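Saturday, quiet lab. Running sequence design on the structure tokens for the scaffold JK sent over.
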């Protein structure tokens, strides 16, 4: 029985590696490929376990019947975990996203680093790993940003400045940054109490997000200062009324 289990483990590894290489050459989606490989390896080990139990002298038929009864009862107690597995199978075959995509779901945004039947792992732009049970993904609205991350630039200028000049400066600073991968949109977003707010929307790779945001904000600040574009701040006028 032990020899059967050892042989099954070796065969499962060999078959898994072979299938993985074969599916990779066929350019099958990585998530579906991982699911197929894992399922085949599991089936081999389950079959080997049944054979090994027979070699140990354990009656298989009553054992399978007992497992079936216990499994029926456990299915009610484990509805939550089982729903994660069912949801995971749905995600793997419907493929709303794949490993490497940038998604926003269940209030979290990040890069999908792994997809398994019970859960999906995503990594945010600050490096935090978030594990989301798949039952919280199926049925929710999923935003798939693929390889790109949206960067928002917000800056206010005084009402007295040449607004066209300020907008052109922002456009030029963004245009010079080679990490920006799509044509940006720049314009007036709001007329605030003490400033005209200029908004820029651009896209970059996920890994470049923070560096692009910091560098462009700094470059705009330096350029505004050198060009005499005033960035206002809230001011209050206090009047003291003396005793008559």
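Result came back. Writing it out in full:
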């Amino acid at each position: 029985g032990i020899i059967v289990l050892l042989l099954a483990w070796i065969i499962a590894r060999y078959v898994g590696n072979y299938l993985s290489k074969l599916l990779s050459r066929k350019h099958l989606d990585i998530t579906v490929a991982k699911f197929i490989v894992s399922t085949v390896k599991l089936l081999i080990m389950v079959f080997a376990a049944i054979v090994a139990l027979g070699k140990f002298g354990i009656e298989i038929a009553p054992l399978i019947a007992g497992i079936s009864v216990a499994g029926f009862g456990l299915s009610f107690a484990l509805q939550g975990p089982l729903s994660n597995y069912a949801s995971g199978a749905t995600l793997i075959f419907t493929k709303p996203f794949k490993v490497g995509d940038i998604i926003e779901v269940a209030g979290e945004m990040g890069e999908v680093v792994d997809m398994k039947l019970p859960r999906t792992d995503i990594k945010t732009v600050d490096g935090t790993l978030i594990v989301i049970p798949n039952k919280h993904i199926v049925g929710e609205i999923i935003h798939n940003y693929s390889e790109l991350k949206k960067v928002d630039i917000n800056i206010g200028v005084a009402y007295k400045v040449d607004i066209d000049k300020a907008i052109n400066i922002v456009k030029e600073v963004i245009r010079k940054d080679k990490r920006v991968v799509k044509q940006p949109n720049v314009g007036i977003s709001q007329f605030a109490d003490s400033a005209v707010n200029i908004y820029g929307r651009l896209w970059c790779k996920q890994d470049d997000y923070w560096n692009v945001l910091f560098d462009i904000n700094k470059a705009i600040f330096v350029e505004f200062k050198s060009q005499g574009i005033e960035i206002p701040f809230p001011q209050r006028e206090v009047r003291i009324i003396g005793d008559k």
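Notes for JK: The chain is about 50% helix and 20% strand. The two ends are 106 Å apart (CA to CA). Ask whether to fix the surface positions before the next round.
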